[in-house]
Design a protein that fits this description.
Elements: H1 6-16, H2 37-43, H3 62-74, E1 78-82, H4 85-95, E2 103-107, H5 112-121, E3 124-128, E4 132-133, E5 138-139, H6 144-153, E6 159-163, H7 175-184, E7 189-192, E8 216-219, H8 221-224, E9 232-236, H9 243-253, H10 260-274, H11 278-296, E10 301-305, E11 311-316, H12 321-330, E12 337-338, E13 343-346, H13 358-373, E14 393-394, H14 400-405, E15 408-412, E16 425-427, H15 443-454, E17 459-461, E18 469-473
Parallel strand pairs: 2-3, 2-6, 6-7, 7-8
Antiparallel strand pairs: 1-9, 3-14, 4-5, 8-9, 10-11, 11-13, 12-13, 15-18, 16-17
Helix pairs in contact: 1-10, 3-10, 4-5, 4-9, 6-7, 11-13, 12-13
Amino acid sequence: MQKKKPIVEGLERFRRQQNISFHVPGHKHGELSHLPQAFKDVMRYDVTELSGLDDLHHPEEMILEAENLLADTYGAMKSFFLVGGSTVGNLAMIYATCKKGDTIIVQRNAHKSIFHAIELVGAKPVFVSPQWDERTLTATHVSYKDLKDAVDDYQEARAVVLTYPTYYGMTSKDIQQQIAYCHEKGIPVLVDEAHGAHFSACTLFQPSALTFGADVVVQSAHKTLPAMTMASFMHVNSNLIDVDKINHYLRMLQSSSPSYLLLASLDDARYYIQTYMESDGAYIIEKRNQWIEALRAIGSLEVIEVDDPIKLLLRVDGYSGFHLQEALEAKHVYAELADANQVLLVLPLLKQGHNYPFAEIRVRIKDAITLLLSTPKAEIITASQTAYNFVAITEPAYTFDEIEKAKKEWLPYMRTMGRISASMIIPYPPGIPLLVPGEKITVAKLSQLEELLATGATFQGNHRLEEKMIEIIK
């Protein structure tokens, strides 16, 4: 088994040489920094493209070797390190497959970076609505029938974009069949697998979309692997995609001064998953199952398991997820996100022998529940299929060019039913737009918005929701 870490080893060799810095960055190996010592120690590895340290934008040495090891680990034709998060990978894969005016079929509950990429390119999106799951109270994946209908109706589409798994850890049972059908029509499938970088670790986890034949897969290594924030992977595994085009756009979109700290953490994350054994997977699943059993013994706490074994949902009847999140944080337990119904936990991808203080965390969660139950219950609007009853296949009523030129106005959102949204409104997390520019505002959308506002959700985008106003086409 390959156990090299080319970038980590190269940086360590460079540090041991005790070099003198007359180059950027200006902190000079941390010597000029007034940050705490722990930060300054790390800054000794914060270097630039010097002799022997290779160049991310034209790799020939240690970075090329590390990316080749990454491709071997995931079984891809070509893999890339991303220092701008999965966002830059999503941008690059759409730029590489679409141009202005092209049709692109998109799973409607995609991340905001997908919508931003489509807007920047000037492509024409066709949205396919996801199915609702009553157990997890989340929108999941598009059905095979709905995607097939979209492909049949829009055979000029240049690409199909899917999200797998969802932020909440749900996977699609139709994805292999969907990819095969798209390939029959000569359409590449681009997959935002931001939350599935660990899927290839062992057979006890769900398979990666690469296994099912996806043409491009983007993964946030920092979400579930031991990589630093923003550090991500991109894999190309198809003859339908021009790898040189992907590389071209990555060179344009990624920083010309990439962080070697991020690159080193990507190299280490690749090593972590490459050396992950079946016994490691069995270990974390056993620890997880024991912990779930202990959590379920806490009165009033409901634990919901999802497809991804390292994600869990917690609920307390009569309290929103935001209330539960607040109580947990009072006990210094920080969840990944909260929604109207629940909080989402991301468990550590432990290896055999790694200890994690599950027993202590259970005590804190129990204390948080006790604290929560001492406060009055609120009327909670439980999310349901009714509020998410969207039309299966839709197109925006306006193109991005038309939206830019159109006159706009602000109206109270409850008076906008049937009107056309002029801006993007994004509940965050999870970063999935509720309203997209050019899209018709429906009863279902307004119901969701009302529910989210009532439970204290946070929003990104161009809005004035504190005044209950949104921007629409005049």
